[in-house]
Amino acid sequence: MLIPVRCFSCGKVIAHLWDQYDERTKAGEDAAEVLTDLGIELYCCRRMFVSHVDLIDDIAPFSVAREI
Fold first, then answer.
1. Following DSSP, what letter does each residue of 36-53 receive, concatenated?
2. 46, 15, 54: which is closest to 30 by C-alpha?
3. How many CA atoms lie within 13 A of 49 on its CB side?
4. Whole-angstrom distance, CA of residue 31 vs CA of residue 50
5. Helix (H, G, I), strand (E, B) or coil at 34
């Protein structure tokens, strides 16, 4: 789905960094270096980025309300 706004463990706001992380990793940069450059130092916050699976495109077609 969408990246959580805050880290589950420490509460740091991280969602605003997702777009930059996603673009840079898709461009071929190393994920660890990108996270360090973005200021994500704690392993709990790094886990939020590395383990995130973007499913919004798979879920969106089923969210339309149907008329009976």
1. HHTT--SHHHHHHHHT--
2. 46
3. 29
4. 8
5. helix
pLDDT digits (tens, 9 = 90+) for 8-24: 999 999 999 999 999 99
Question: Angle at CA 32, nearest 5°, toward 28 and 35?
Answer: 95
| pTM, full prediction | 0.77
For 32-62, what is each residue's pLDDT tens digit?
999 999 999 999 999 999 998 877 778 777 7
b/e map 44-61, b = 16+ CB within 10 Å: ebbebbeebeeeeeeeee
Domain spans of the chain, in order of start? 20-62
User: Side chain identity at 53, as an amino acid letter?
Assistant: V
